[in-house]
Amino acid sequence: MEGLQKFLHFFFVASLLISTTAISDHTPKPYVVYMGNSSPNKIGVESQIAESSHLQLLSLIIPSEESERIALTHHFSHAFSGFSAMLTESEASALSGHDGVVSVFPDPVLELHTTRSWDFLESELGMKPYYSHGTPTLHKHPSTDIIIGVIDTGIWPESPSFRDEGIGEIPSKWKGVCMEGRDFKKSNCNRKLIGARYYKIQATSGDNQTHIEAAKGSPRDTVGHGTHTASIAAGVHVNNASYFGLAKGTARGGSPSTRIAAYKTCSDEGCSGATILKAIDDAVKDGVDIISISIGLSSLFQSDFLSDPIAIGAFHAEQKGVLVVCSAGNDGPDPFTVVNSAPWIFTIAASNIDRNFQSTIVLGNGKYLQGTGINFSNLTHSKMHRLVFGEQVAAKFVPASEARNCFPGSLDFNKTAGNIVVCVNDDPSVSRRIKKLVVQDARAVGIILINENNKDAPFDAGVFPFTQVGNLEGHQILKYINSTKNPTATILPTTEVARSKPSPIVASFSSRGPSSLTENILKPDVMAPGVGILAAVIPKSKEPGSVPIGKKPSLYAIKSGTSMACPHVTGAAAFIKSVHKKWSSSMIKSALMTTATNYNNMRKPLTNSSNSIAGPHEMGVGEINPLRALNPGLVFETDVEDYLRFLCYFGYSQKIIRSISETNFNCPKNSSEDLISSVNYPSISISTLKRQQKAKVITRTVTNVGYLNATYTAKVRAPQGLVVEVIPNKLVFSEGVQRMTYKVSFYGKEAHGGYNFGSLTWLDGHHYVHTVFAVKVE
Ligand SMILES: *[C@@H]1O[C@H](CO)[C@@H](O)[C@H](O)[C@H]1NC(C)=O
Ligand SMILES: *[C@@H]1O[C@H](CO)[C@@H](O)[C@H](O)[C@H]1NC(C)=O
Ligand SMILES: *[C@@H]1O[C@H](CO)[C@@H](O)[C@H](O)[C@H]1NC(C)=O
Ligand SMILES: *[C@@H]1O[C@H](CO)[C@@H](O)[C@H](O)[C@H]1NC(C)=O
Ligand SMILES: *[C@@H]1O[C@H](CO)[C@@H](O)[C@H](O)[C@H]1NC(C)=O
Ligand SMILES: *[C@@H]1O[C@H](CO)[C@@H](O)[C@H](O)[C@H]1NC(C)=O
Ligand SMILES: *[C@@H]1O[C@H](CO)[C@@H](O)[C@H](O)[C@H]1NC(C)=O
Ligand SMILES: *[C@@H]1O[C@H](CO)[C@@H](O)[C@H](O)[C@H]1NC(C)=O
Ligand SMILES: CC(=O)N[C@H]1CO[C@H](CO)[C@@H](O)[C@@H]1O
């Protein structure tokens, strides 16, 4: 799999290179020019001066006869410095050698992390209250001064989730705005939704103008993604929310008292990297505490930290004390698919919660099979329909292999009309949504999809009867079709069932570690609910058949993706920040990491969707537990200098690192990639431990945030053969001693090859501070 990944990567990069050269070097394209830290004199009034100096820089590069191109699409000057502009390839390369320029890269298109990209925006899936697995209400503070910035597709301000009854005045630290735009007035903001901005969406080459038009010059969400993520993070309590009766309950965000500022950077075709940078720059200036980004580069096109707009923006936000929480991506379950993996980003994987949506299949032989999916089927138990397998009803001249996959144009309508069609998924190039449309178009009455992948993320088929089963059930269905002359079946309407199975479990689509950039930081960081989440949406039907006849579009819908997991953590972080106002972003992140649970509701280790025990590359250190995170005992503080050292170890030059830092930072003399493992991170990862070598020793420093006098002892769990020692293995804190450093040594002579996972837990009788390690033995 890994080989294939690498091959695909090579293939895509190669084709990218070929196509760029083919388009020609002379066509201007959008580029981001990143110029590092914004020195204090560039802020405020001086920002005008910075802007004109950027224009001057452009005028040196762009020929005077094309002077109309001497214009900045976006200009960054608050949290960091730089701009985006239309440049030719040679101009871009000339600029990149220029003094003060850190990096120049083509403005990338990033994707929204709802469901897999091939299912992109197709699963309008609904949701139950936050933490349906029994975590008590987080808190009922009437309001707090915590502000989260949601960088996404904008917001639908009329949603009941953004009402401001009982919420206090807007915090005085808020410096943002409520931009007016098409169908969006200042009065659409309130004490809950305190700010909204939108950006002109920069065209990428070959772009359809209607794409830009779709953004419609307004903060208003026309996609539904941003409204959903914002309400997961900080929606107020809304009673009796449901998706056409499914997932009924009280909808509410992780931190209902937190304020929301919406930054619209994406349309339903994706997000421009330059626009995301601009939004982060604005959000930091506006005074947000936490930024939530359910967006990322495709795992096939990851770039290094200083050419990745989210990594750049998040670095500077962190430098200004703003926590950035991002989704890990939906390209799982293959390894090396995690994105947003810089150590200063809080990277979130997705889990299933203790709820499932079932659509039962009844076969003519009386057998019942459980499938998953959301449908508003009007089929009934009493009427059976003929059941056909796609390849048996292939249109003329169509290979059976296409028809069994229900490819567009592959079915003979005369043989499908009135029947239920069974499709398989040997070839993932056609999404669930397309298969459903193909079968619906073929005048069938329902579709049964056999697909092991993603059956844990229920697909929303609207009113068309749909259900998805795994290979086991699929085999039974095909066997039944073979066994009789006249196979029949029906699909019953979706019911919501409490999961009898363990939960949470890692969602199959959730992107997996290790990070392809460095294996010396463990990624993803933590896991949070991201499957079948009910939250606010825009009350608009996107395609016919998505709303049951006679019903109004729903104000709430069920969606899946790491996009949904990310704002759960944003909400949890806002909750912790509202209690521990002075905590830095790394303290909040550490608290959520060391208190995460790696046990499920059956008190067994967490598993993945194929029932194997889940490892840290699947779920990070475990599922967040916000209430326990309020009182973590010890925290790992990772400060800006740690991140700068990380960049030295990673291999950037001191000159570049100085230009992005606010200080005259010096790289350690003996910087090497190995030393990344000793960056003060709340988990431990070691990319190579040679069997022959001496023990590898890393260091960590903990800060006591619990009782002043506390004594912690270390408990190690390591796989057979890996020798792990903690020195000292007892930490004694007192009034004068708040921070302590310890070493952990790993010795792998007898260990088995490949990744070894384990944990080191500090215990004081009140707290347990759980640190997970991943060590690759060679
Ligand atoms: C742009 O998109 C619209 C609607 O999706 C389509 O009708 C039009 O043909 C497209 N134009 C180009 C140049 O692709
Ligand atoms: C809840 O919503 C349903 C429709 O979805 C409605 O029939 C019912 O009366 C509502 N209940 C309350 C308490 O508002
Ligand atoms: C189910 O709904 C479809 C339209 O969505 C309608 O054509 C069909 O007659 C209905 N079937 C039954 C059994 O009500
Ligand atoms: C489907 O049936 C119609 C009407 O019976 C007939 O005209 C048509 O040729 C048939 N199409 C195919 C592909 O057999
Ligand atoms: C059904 O029959 C076909 C050929 O008649 C065979 O290839 C296939 O394996 C059978 N499927 C099952 C599930 O028995
Ligand atoms: C679950 O974990 C096992 C063991 O690591 C692995 O073989 C399997 O592919 C994983 N399944 C998924 C869906 O990630
Ligand atoms: C790196 O150099 C410092 C002093 O320059 C030294 O204390 C430290 O042990 C060195 N680390 C390694 C891994 O060589
Ligand atoms: C901590 O211990 C010291 C001496 O061991 C004692 O004087 C002090 O009162 C203790 N503080 C607390 C908060 O228990
Ligand atoms: C769970 C659910 O909402 N099921 C619905 C499926 O569709 C039928 C008919 O539209 C409804 O009656 C069910 O309530």
Protein architecture, described:
The active site is at residues 152, 225, 563. One of its GO terms (cellular component) is apoplast. It is found in: Secreted, Extracellular space, Apoplast. Residues 144-600 form the Peptidase S8/S53 domain. There is one protein chain. This protein has 778 residues and is of the alpha/beta class. It has four domains: 29-106, Alpha-Beta Plaits; 147-202 and 212-353 and 503-595, Peptidase S8/S53 domain (Rossmann fold, 3-Layer(aba) Sandwich), CATH 3.40.50.200; 356-497, Glucose Oxidase, domain 1 (3-Layer(bba) Sandwich); 634-638 and 680-777, Immunoglobulin-like (Sandwich). Helix content is 22%, strand content 26%. The protein has 17 helices and 38 strands. The strands form eight sheets. Strands 6, 7, 10, 13, 15, 16, 25, 26 and 29 form a nine-stranded mixed beta sheet that branches. Strands 17, 18, 19, 20, 21, 22, 23 and 24 form an eight-stranded mixed beta sheet that branches. Strand 17 (355-363) and strand 18 (368-372) form a beta hairpin. The longest helix is centred in the first third of the chain and has 22 residues, at 2-23. The chain starts with a helix and ends with a strand. Residues 1-23 and 115-141 have low confidence and may be disordered. The site of one 2-acetamido-2-deoxy-beta-D-glucopyranose has 2 residues, from loops.
